Amino acid sequence: MTPWEAREHVNVLLGEAAQHPQVPGAQKLCSRFLREWHALWSRYGESREGWPHYRAVLDRFTQELGDYADRIMLRNGAVFLASITLMVLRVALADRPMPVRGDEYRAPLHVPGAPAPSERADMFARPVFIVSPPRSGSSLLFETLAKAPNLYTIGSESHAIFEGMPQLNIAAHGYASNRLDATAASPEVVAELRERFRGRLVNRDGKAPVAESVRVLEKTPKNALRVPFIDRAFPQAHFVYLYRDVRETLASMIEAWQSGRFVTYPELPGWRGPPWSLLLVPGWRELAGKPVAEIVAAQWQATTDLLLDDLAALPADRVTVARYDALLTDPQAEISRLCAATGLQWDQSLRGALPPSQHTLSAPAPDKWRKHEREIEAVLPGLAETIARAERFAAR
Questions:
Q1: 124 neighbors 187 (Cβ within 8 angstroms)
Q2: What is the pLDDT of residue 114?
């Protein structure tokens, strides 16, 4: 397992950990493990010469987690130790046979005697991708839409699926950004990516697909920078652009940076500043040394400009706009409208306020953004053109 894939898995699990006295200790153990794994990778890569060293680090990490992190639970009720065992400990090094369910990351792309991918029905029939700048409410929209019948998701964001592939990892692109265009979607990359998704799909009842072709829902903030790539990999994709008031979004992004829970690249080469959080945008190196408010403003602007460019290049019938304010005000009406626009079924009754999403940092409130009003008002003039463009697009 590459150090980037290991870090994505570990960070996702730590981000979902419920409060417990063991969590700080687990964070330290995980941080040390990731540093040691990365150091070994820098020296040995996948060479078998390094495997005994990888095994020693992995075995020690496994033992320490078992001793000091055995009572941590995730917010969805899963056991942290069991989850990290399935996602990292048993699959990080293939020097031992580990027939574990969910080992799709090491599964062959084609089993002899089975139909070749080109001969199968397309499993991803009109997949729906929610795209937006980070902290726009996409988790709330995703968790709500995922309750639709006959709809499948991987249950979470797809950071590890994308960045676990060396061809798609930022290291392979000189740490330029999370941007992926259509040229990155080679047939081999697309085949592997689809197989990674295929092996993790479940419906709202936690059951894997039986039919050859199913409707799929996906939401990962970084994918706002990957629309051309996704369009090539999933030609039937329908994109739902989620619009949220920029002041609310910026305030939530500032909180995300300050919380330390959304760190994506803790050891970003050449970065001077707090550990990099959220998606990596083009031009990030120019943000070194700037205040967090200016960093998130640049993240929002770069993401929005690229996203709107990419969506405008698609046929209009493959793009639908969702509004965060409408989702809060009348969730039943907004979800019903989106399902009609994307061809999804809906059989739920949404009465009252929606429950907070799993990534909510503090209780929602209409004027919560005013906690950071001074910093936000200072950066808004530089965003004016992009804000106006986003508002026009959202009004379609």
A1: no
A2: 43
**In this structure, what are the phi and psi dihedrals at residue 17, rounded to the nearest 5 degrees?**
-70, 135
Q: What is the mean pLDDT of residues 59-81?
A: 85
The three-state secondary structure class of 75 is coil
CA 261 vs. chain centroid, Å, equals 14
What are the angstrom distances between the C-alpha of 362 and each of 232, 354, 358, 370, 373?
37, 15, 11, 14, 17
> Is the pLDDT assigned to residue 113 strictly greater than 70?
no
| Residue-wise pLDDT tens digits, 287-300 | 999 999 999 999 99
Name the packing angle between helices 3-15 and 23-44 (round to 10°).
170
Closest CA to 254 of 308, 304, 298, 303: 298
Element (H, E) at 31: helix 23-44
pTM of the model: 0.73
Q: Which residues lie across from 360 on neighbouring strands?
A: none
Which of 68, 100, 84 is CA-nearest to residue 13? 84
Give the end-to-end CA distance of the chain in Å, rounded to a whole number: 44
Q: Is 202 helix (H, G, I), strand (E, B) or coil?
A: strand
Q: What is the pLDDT of residue 48?
A: 86
What percent of the chain lies above the pLDDT cut of 90?
A: 62
Pair of tokens at residue 367? 């004027």
Q: Residue 319: in which H helix or E strand, if any?
A: strand 319-323
Domain boundaries, given as residue ranges, for the chain: 3-93, 121-394
pLDDT tens per residue, range 185-229: 999 999 999 999 998 999 999 999 988 899 999 999 999 999 999
CATH, range 121-394: 3.40.50.300
Are the C-beta atoms of 29 and 17 separated by less than 8 Å? no
Please answer whether residues 222 and 277 qualify as being in contact, where contact means their C-beta atoms are separated by less than 8 angstroms: no
Give the chain's mean pLDDT: 88
Helix, strand, coil share of the chain (percent; to 5): 50, 10, 40
CA torsion angle 36 40 42 46 (round to 10): -140
